[in-house]
Amino acid sequence: QHLTAVQAAAAVGEARVEGDALGSTEIRFDPTTVRSGQYRFAVGSAGSATLVLQTVLPPLLTAASESMVILEGGTHNPWAPPFDFLQRVFLPLVNRLGPRVEASLTQPGFYPAGGGSFTVRVRPSRSLNRLALRSRGDIVGRRVTALLANLPRHIAERELRTAVAGLNWKADCSSVTTYDGVAGPGNVLLIEIESTKVTEIATAFGAVGVAAEAVANQAMKQARRYLAATWRRLEASRLAAEQASQAKSDFLATISHEIRTPLNGILGMAQAMQRDELSGPQNERLRVIRRSGET
Fold it and tell me: Which one of 76, 192, 219, 234 counts the least CB within 10 Å of its CB?
C-alpha cells in the first residue's frame, strides 16, 4: 500500500520519482502540477486502498476539474480506516470544506485476502472553507452493524447481541450485512454514533481464535470511550457555568458593599445638614439625596 500510495501521488502530481520500489530505503519525489482525471490504483494485496485514497485526495480537492478514482485492494483492514468510516465519517467532513466527494463500494476486500474495490468521484472547489468542530451536538442515531463474508451467520448475531446488551441499546438498531462472492472470509463489527454535527464509528475485526463476544467488547470499549468524552465535556461546561455564576454573585456582593459604605456616609451627612438653617432649594436637594440613597 505504501508503494502504491507513492505511485498514485506521482501520477496525480506528475512527479519525477526515484526509489519507488519495494525494499527501497530512500525516495526522491519531485512533483510538478496537479492533474485531475480518471485514475485506477491497485494495491495488489490486502493493503489498504483507503489509505491510498487519503494520499491523493488532498490535491484533487482543489484541482482544475473533476476526477474519478477507482481503488482496488483492502477495504476493511485492521490497521487502516475501513471503507464505512471513510464514507460516513471522513468524507462528510471533507465535503464541508467545499468540494463534493462521493464514494461507492463495488466489492469489499477483507484482510488478509483483499480483492476489494471502490470508486470515488471528486468534484473540486477553488478554495477550501474553514472547518470548525467545537461540539458533536445531540446524538440522533445509533447503529450496530456486523459485516460478514464466507462465515457462519451466528458469529455476527453473537456480536450484535453482546454489543446491544453491553451498550443498553435497542435491538432494532442492529443488523447483519452479508457479502457473497468475495475473496476469503471476513468479519467486521461497526458501532456507529451519529450526532447532529459529526458521526463516529468504532470498529473491531474478527480473527481466527477470537470469540465473537471478544470482538464486540473491543468495539464497545472504543464506543464507550467516545461517549465518555462527550459526558466529560458536558460536565466541564456545567461546572464552568456554575463557577461563572458564583463569580458574578461574588462580584455583585463585593461591589454592593463597596458602594454602600461611602453612601452611608453621604446619607449621614445629609441627615446632619437638615438640622441647619437652610434655604428651600437646599432642603429640597437634601431630600432628593436621602430618597435616592434609601431606594
Answer: 234
